[in-house]
Amino acid sequence: MIDEMAEVRAYLAGKKPTARTEYRCIYLLARYYVYCCGMDEPTATNKILDWGRHEVGYEFSIRVSRVVYYAIHKPRPLRENVTVYINDDDIAEIKTRFAKKKIRTFALGMLAYAKCAADEDGVFDVSIVGMADWLGLTLSSVRRWLPILEENGFIQKITQRKRKKKFRTPISKFKMLIPLVNEGAYEIRENDITDLVDTVFTD
Fold this sequence. Notes:
The protein has helices at about 5-10, 20-35, 40-55, 65-70, 90-95, 100-115, 130-135, 140-150, 195-200; strands at about 85, 125, 155-160, 170-175, 185-190. It is α+β, with helices and mostly antiparallel strands. It has two domains: about 5-70, no CATH class; about 85-200, Arc Repressor Mutant, subunit A, CATH 1.10.10.10. The two termini are about 25 Å apart.
């Protein structure tokens, strides 16, 4: 989620998508093949289909060409070599609002993502499906916790883009309500957040 190029490398190394993550997988690979490798749209589409069938044994259930179209007609460089820092104030903000480890994990993931994706007003777009997959949480739990994060003054929901097609992953817009200061003693590199969660949320 934070380092998109790291996600691409994981897929190219053999990570298999799931029905829940296949849209994001195609979206990331399309941007990689077009903007990093110089492929055109049809070539990138065929490359992704071949990768799925022959490299990881996965047959996409959605129309790959349509996702590729969406990906390359809204150009944005893949985030890479991103390091997010978490500080003691961040941890305290989460611990004072939420009691259980899993919802704290979700709050930490949203905060970390906001630090690399939010604008100067703290507003950011995020796929809740992608967030749940990154953090190893169930989608139903994440959806249930979103109102709790709002009620506790952690985030504010701005809007959610409507699905244009049934397979599109909804993108929601939020505003982070606590300070976004990308500095601290704890680092998140290459999307590895598990060790940090186990270190800071032991109680």
